Amino acid sequence: MEKGVTLWFTGLSGSGKSTIANALTPRLKALGKRVEILDGDEVRTNLSKGLGFSKEDRDTNIRRIGYVAQLLTRNGAVAITAAISPYRAIRDEVRSRIGDFVEIYAKCPLDALVARDVKGLYKKALAGEIKEFTGVSDPYEEPLHPEIVVETDRETVEESVNKVLARLAELGYLPSDATLPIAPHGGLLVNRLVTGVRREELLEKARSLPIIQLDERAQSDVEMIAVGAFSPLRGFLGEDDYRSVVDDMRLANGLPWSIPISLQVSREQASKLKEGSEVALTDERGVVLAILDLAELYSPDRQEEAQLVYGTTENAHPGVAAMLQAGEVYLGGEIHVVNRPDTVAFPAYHRDPAQTRALFRERGWRTVVGFQTRNPIHRAHEYITKGALEIVDGLMLHPLVGKTKGDDIPADVRMRCYEVLMEHYYPQDRVLLSVYPAAMRYAGPREAIFHALARKNYGCTHFIVGRDHAGVGNYYGTYDAQKLFDEFQPGELGIQPLKFENAFYSKVTGQMATAKTAPGGPDTQVNLSGTKVRELLSQGQLPPPEFSRPEVANILIDSMKK
C-alpha cells in the first residue's frame, strides 16, 4: 500500500491555509494520490459542533481532526488539514500520534491579514468587539520547526503550492526524480464543481434568481471551465480580459490566451440583469447547471472580434456565425457549477484533466503528445502521430466531440474509426484514446494555440500542429497555425508544438512521407482531397489503401448508407 501523510496547515485566520490546500489537492491527485481535506470550518460544523473557543475546546477540536487524519494517513491517503490550531503542544501531540506528519506554516503578518479581511473580523477584534480572537485577543503560537513555511503575503498561490510539492519530494512523499506532470496553464488546475451542503444551498438559491438558458456551445464551455480544461479561467471573461485576448492573445495579466470564452445574451435579456447580482445558468430542460457571479455586462464590437479572432467577418464562417447569433451583450464573472451539463458522450473515454494526468502518471509517461482531431484518422494522420510517438513516452488521441458544423462526420462514427485503429495499428500501451468535450470554433491559427493550452491542462507536454489546424474553407493560409506559435517566446506557452508538413503516400519511396523526406512531385503522391474521398465513400468505393485503412473506410461507407 502506498505511504500516506498528513499535511497540517497552521496559521492565522485568513492566512491562506484553505486556499493553498484546495490548490494543492488537484496537483496531488494528478500524481495519483488519494487526497482528503479536513477544513477547520467544516470540521467545526460536522465533527466538533457544540465546542467553544476555550483552550480546552480548541485542543479537543484538534484531537478530533488529528484522529481522522491519522486514520486516513495509515490507509495510504494524503490527509490535508486547514485549521488554525493555535497551540504548539497539541500540534506536537498530534504529530507524535500520526508519525507521517508535515507541518506547513501559512505565515502572514497581521497588517496584511487586516487589509485582506473582507468580513472585517480583525477590525472588530482589534476594537474589542470579538472576544477570544486568535492573533488578537487570544494567543497564536508559531511553529518552531515546521517542515514548510509559505509566506502568503509575498508568494502567489502557485509559488506556495510548488514550494510544498518540492519539499514533499525532498521528504520522500513524492517522487524525488521530479517527474511531476507539466503544470496546468497558470499553475493551478481550476475546479469549479460545487458539492455537498454548498451545492444544495446554491440549488435552493437558484429558485429565486434570474435565468439564462445556455445553448450547446455555452454548456460545453461551462463543463470545460468547471473541470479545469480551460484553466486558469474560473468563469466567463470580463471586459478587460476579453479586450486583451482579442487584441493581444493574452489575458489582462499577460498570460497567453487566444480565444475569448464569452457568455452572450440579447439586449432584452441583459436589461433584466444587473452587475453584482447572481444568475442561474440552465440547459434547455431548465436544469440548473451553474450560478454566475455577474461582475460585468459589456457590449464589445463583434465585427472587430470576428476579424481579429477568426480572420473574417463573413457569416459563412461557422465560428463567426455562432458568435454573431449568440447575442450583443456579454456577461462576465466566475461560475459555480452545481450540475455538469448532460452532454457526456462516450463515457468510457470521457476523462477530466485530473484523470488524464493521473493516468499519465500511472503509466510512467513523463512526456505526452496530444493530437486534436475532428475528422477520422487517415494514413497521413497516422503517420504524423506515430512520428511524434517516436520522441515522447505516450500519445493521447484527443478527438473533439462537442458541437461541430453540420457537415462534419458525426462523433460516434469517428469514435468507431479511432477504436478500430487503436485495436489494429497502434501500440495500446503507449496510446490513450480520450474525448475532448469542447465546442469547435474553427478559428484556425488562434484555435491551434487554444487547443495546445487546453491539452497542457490535460497533462500533455507536446502538441501536434498540422498544416491547416482548426481551419475551415479558405480563410487561413496552409501553415498559418504553425507560424502563430512562433510569435510567442520559447517556453512561454509551456507546451512544445510539434510541427508537421502535409503527409502523403510516396510512390517513389513506397511509404508515407512528406516533402521533407521524399523526392518527386505531386504526380508521385497519393494525397486525395476531402471532397474526392467523400465522393468515393458515398459511392461505396474504398479509397486507395495508401490513403485510408480499409477498416476505417468501411465504417465511413456504412455510416453514409445509414
Commentary on this structure:
By secondary structure, this protein is an alpha/beta fold. It has three domains: 5-170, Rossmann fold, CATH 3.40.50.300; 196-337, Sulfate adenylyltransferase, CATH 3.10.400; 347-561, Rossmann fold. The protein is 37% helix and 16% strand. The chain is built from 20 helices and 20 strands. The protein has helices at residues 17-30, 40-46, 55-74, 88-98, 110-116, 121-126, 157-170, 196-206, 216-226, 239-248, 267-270, 302-310, 318-325, 353-362, 379-389, 411-425, 445-457, 480-485, 530-538, 550-561; strands spanning 5-10, 35-39, 78-82, 101-107, 148-151, 211-213, 235-236, 263-265, 278-282, 288-293, 296-298, 329-337, 368-373, 394-399, 431-433, 462-465, 496-499, 504-506, 511-513, 525-526. Strands 6, 7, 8, 9, 10, 11 and 12 form a seven-stranded mixed beta sheet that branches. Strand 9 (278-282) and strand 10 form a beta hairpin. The mean pLDDT is 89.
Q: What attributes characterize this protein structure?
A:
Rossmann fold, 20 strands, 562 residues, Sulfate adenylyltransferase, five-stranded parallel sheet, seven-stranded mixed sheet, 20 helices, 37% helix, alpha/beta
